[in-house]
Amino acid sequence: MSVALLEEGPPDSSPYIHIPGAYYKTAQGPLLKRLPWEPPPGLGPSATPTMVQASVLGGGSSVNAMIYIRGVPSDYERWVALGATGWSYDDVLPYFKRAEDNNRFCNDVHSIGGPLGVSDIDYIHPLTRAWLQACQQAGLPYNPDFNSGNQTGCGLYQITAKNGRRSSAAVAYLKPARGRSNLRVLTKTTVTRIIVENGKAVGVECIRNGNNSILWAEREVILSAGAIATPKLLMLSGIGSADALERQGIPVHVDLPGVGQNLQDHIEISLIYQLNGPHSYDKYKRPHWKAAAGLNYALFRGGPASSNLIEGGAFWWGNKSEKAPDIQYFMVVGAGIEEGVDAVPGGNGCTVNLGQIRPRSRGEVTLRSANPADTPVIAPRYFSDPYDLDAITDGTMAAIDIMERPAISRYLTARQTPSPMIRARDEIKDFCRKNAHAALHPSGTCRMGEDEMAVVDPRLRVRGIEGLRVADASIMPTLISGNPNAVCIMIGERAAEFIRP
């Protein structure tokens, strides 16, 4: 069996990809595509908001913050209840373990020897430790392993890294296979349509070096383009809502009304604080500190450059009626590290990001036109279910309370965002509604199941079309409770088993 892998972006050759501390570069750089999304009235900044998607070999795993989170068992029980038979927590756990090469754990839920490096962060900033102590002062228990099946509490994240370097999907899986004669990797190649003949996917049309070409498939076509591009490609290929496709003049191969529906994303709030001294990674913006960190990393693969800059976090409740925590916290040891977050007066700051991790709001991805060059219409409809706004408001108030605890407040000069004058719950709620931003975890647009709105079956086969599967975040019936990268890799492991002859 031979494999051709087509990637729209360039190879993962940028050194910034592989150095964990250079995450702030990959989070803002040219390896990302920025797609406008439709904000509902009253939400977000006046500028056009964008949904950021990776465009590089390895996809999101080459540019993200590397945080390794699996979610909780009840996430997968929800999948099963929605028709994803065979995807319970007990069903998927072996695939998480198969992928994993953990540098600390080896037990009932963790493993060693897999292709994906999962590691403790070698360098932990003192401000991260102070924030974790503040969390405990606020009543959060310390949790040594967010991936044990119980996320409750505060602790240090593990990341997808190995020996001080990012362990992306491209590094972990593709790099060891590049020498195989049956593998062909084509970067800077944009797929524009899946070719369907007599109810079967038989190839893809693509653009490479400015030229149109066709690659024919002997067995199957597997889409792993993500929750935005995958439904777009299906619809361009005549797979989707018949009425919507006919309005665009696209011949219908199979009427699948669920394609592009069920869009989910975590939505986040950023709280930005000014520090009373050089107590964060912001000081490494200065040339001599940056040089020192670079030398440390070059010689020992250690120091600040071996950190992903988001070392500590927590899972806690926004809505107390939930059985498992529904708010995720990230202590970002700097201000201006992530795109859209401003620096602070004096240059030394920190950021607390928090997200509502089991959103009830649903959106959609639809075609703008039949032209593959046009971006799709992305309508996340954040906060369309008021539950999400109420939960993230309460989560924000809890985050503010943590930052007022002695362990961390002694390093702070002032809260910059939101203004210190904003304290009442109604004021916090209004701030959240106006300043929330996408967590960039789009999922669910080709959901797995067995009902009429399901797009793929539990073996990831597109319903009504032979020889076509989807293996990415779009197949999730619901978002998991946390960063979805580890889950996407688990989905890839399962897809490989389904495809293997």
UniProtKB/TrEMBL annotation:
Keyword Membrane attributed: no
Name of the protein in its database record: Choline dehydrogenase
Protein family membership: Belongs to the GMC oxidoreductase family.
Alphabetized Pfam families for the sequence: GMC_oxred_C, GMC_oxred_N
Domain of life: Bacteria
SUPFAM superfamilies per UniProt: FAD-linked reductases, C-terminal domain (SSF54373), FAD/NAD(P)-binding domain (SSF51905)
Species of provenance: Rhizobium mongolense subsp. loessense
Domain named Glucose-methanol-choline oxidoreductase N-terminal: residues: 226-240
PANTHER family in alphabetical order: CHOLINE DEHYDROGENASE, MITOCHONDRIAL, GLUCOSE-METHANOL-CHOLINE GMC OXIDOREDUCTASE
Single GO term (MF): flavin adenine dinucleotide binding
Matching Gene3D superfamilies: FAD/NAD(P)-binding domain, Glucose Oxidase, domain 3
Record bears the keyword Transcription: no
